[in-house]
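Below sits our specimen:

——
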Amino acid sequence: MPASKRYSVLVVDDSTHIVEFLSELLRREGHSVVSANSGRQAAAILDSVAVDVLITDVLMPDGDGIELLNRVRREGRHVPRLIAISGGGRYVNSTNCLTIAAGAGAQVCLQKPFTDVELLAALEPAS
């Protein structure tokens, strides 16, 4: 079922497979999507493209998602919805991930693997 609102979304993950999968899912739901495979690439995109939603992996080789979220907040960029996704590592569970990501401004942290329904629900602000 398509979401009621259409968003401009930046998807960031060092896994090309995850970026492609999430981008396709979001496009099928009617959202416009830009993507990046690193924190540096995402920061460059944010310099020229306004987005409604940033979905970023927490752990990436060249600047993790927490650094990216902090940069968005520090630079005063208007990105209404910040979503962190984590496959583990030092952010082993969703509680740790949410605590750390929330400190960087994220409203949601999804633990991989998450479902399509969970991701699409995360796009919408809490009522």
Notes: The longest helix spans residues 16-28.
